Amino acid sequence: MALAIFKQVRQAIEQLNPAEVREQAARRVDIRLTASGGEGYTQIEDFLVPRRMSKDRRQEALNTVFRADDADAPREFDLDIVEEGMHRPRGSYVFRPDKPGRLAADILEARPELSLPLARLFGPFLGPVSEAIVYKVSKENALFSIATALPDIAPGFAIPWAIPEAMSDTAVLSVNQVRMAFLLAAASGRPVGYREQKTEVASIIAGALGWRALARQLIGKIPMGGGVIPKAGIAFAATYVEGRSLERLYRVGYGFTEDERKDAYRDALDQGKQVARALYDRVKRK
Fold first, then answer.
1. Which domain holds residue 192?
2. Residues 154 and 73 both lie in one domain
3. pLDDT at residue 9, as a whole number
4. Would you state the pLDDT for residue 8?
């Protein structure tokens, strides 16, 4: 059984293309700043590109940030950021010194397609983008678990990437975690790919059998489909903990210890069951 699952995971992984993630993260994002003076410009620049960043990464980011009066500024920009209190052109975003984090939230809400390059280059975006990636993929895995457990309720459910037919749910959920690893590495400015992330990919595949067995055990013990919510909660929690560990690995160089994983899993399982219940109710209504 384990060998068959590993074979399926390998087949499904072939459908993922890390080059697409690398290309998305490498997209250039030109930003125009408008402020009342030098101090205002510096304040925005120091927020977007903190001085604690490495010299090379800070310079790479600053090469895409222009002041409104810069002679070498491009004609078109991806983002316009305006100091609070100044005239705000349509489609621009306001930097508020007392609430600087609001800027990143506003931009990510309006321009999600820029999330990876913004996270890679600009410090304030990394945390929110990584958190969003982990939560989104965890939620997708919970929803997929519900759809496969109750095909009569969710007929024709489509997952967000192509896989071979007759693929087990364990293989699909594991491959989605690999996709999450690609996205988190890209957001953190780390190398992306099977060879570059072979340790993380191997860990994800090895861990799949453990939570698969737990999910099957729950389904078997709870009659009349009552194990659907716990199963989906486990899919969420397993993915969420893996994502949080990967996020820390790419941020500081090491992931969760075994004890930290256990503690994080207990917390994530409660959250996962709540998410699963909400998804289950939504699927039934539709």
1. 2-24+123-285
2. no
3. 60
4. 61
Domain count, the chain: 2
20 and 146 fall within a common domain = yes
Distances (CA, A) of 148 to 3, 158, 167, 168, 265: 22, 11, 11, 9, 23
What is the token pair recorded at 253? 């160089």
What is the secondary structure of 181-204 as a DSSP string?
HHHHHHHTT---STTTTHHHHHHH
CA 138, distance to chain mean position in Å, is 9
Are 194 and 18 contacting, i.e. CB atoms less than 8 angstroms apart? yes
pTM greater than 0.85 (yes/no): yes
CA distances from 11 to 86, 181, 230, 243 (A): 55, 18, 28, 22
169-187 vs 228-252: helix crossing angle, rounded to 10: 30
Give yes or no for residue 197 having a pLDDT over 70.
yes
Q: Residue 229 has what pLDDT?
A: 86
**Rounded to the nearest 5 degrees, what angle is found at the Cα of 148, between the Cα atoms of 147 and 153?**
45
Q: How far is CA 55 from CA 13, 49, 51, 96, 213, in A?
A: 36, 10, 8, 26, 47
Q: Give phi and psi for 32, each to the nearest 5.
A: -110, 130
Task: Return the SS3 of 251.
Answer: helix
Nearest to 125 by CA among 36, 25, 54, 37: 25
Phi, psi of 227 (to 5 degrees): -85, 5
My answer on whether 20 and 34 are in the same domain is no
Can you give the pLDDT at residue 222? Answer: 43
Residue for token pair 């690893």: 181
232-286: pLDDT as tens digits: 898 899 999 999 999 999 999 999 998 998 899 989 999 999 999 998 888 777 6
The half-sphere exposure of 141 on its side-chain side, counting CA atoms within 13 A, is 38
